[in-house]
Design a protein that fits this description.
single chain, mainly alpha
């Protein structure tokens, strides 16, 4: 439970920070998609950004769950860092492409990947100490 809380808060916060700090962010296509599916009442930028951030979190957790046996059996500690980095890269880029989020800062994107990898490693270490 603590592991999930650290991952959820950390990843959503970091992704939301990535979104807010991007000056030229464009989520108009995502808003149009929401309108098309009947969610026209969602016009607040905060809600849109939270939907994107939570979607990135959910995809990251799904990928971690699917690849959990692979992580535990085949990967050493050194490779976990690169594996978590790739999981974060895959999840955030997939969500941004599917939701058609444009104009985000590439530098902030890289900072997100580094810190989100650190969050996943910290959450794993805290979980091991608690159990």
């Amino acid at each position: 439970m603590i592991r999930f809380a650290i991952q959820a808060f950390g990843l959503v916060f970091l992704n939301y920070l990535n979104i807010i700090l991007s000056k030229d962010l464009d989520v108009e296509q995502f808003k149009k998609d929401l309108d098309f599916f009947g969610f026209s009442f969602i016009n607040d930028s905060f809600i849109i950004y939270m939907i994107i951030s939570i979607s990135v979190l959910m995809l990251t957790l799904i990928l971690l769950f699917v690849f959990k046996p692979f992580i535990e059996i085949y990967l050493l500690h050194l490779y976990k860092v690169s594996f978590y980095f790739l999981i974060n890269l895959l999840s955030i880029s997939t969500i941004y492409i599917v939701y058609r989020v444009y104009g985000y800062s590439r530098f902030n994107f890289l900072i997100y990947l580094i810190f989100s990898t650190a969050v996943l490693l910290i959450a794993e270490k805290v979980h091991k100490k608690v159990t």
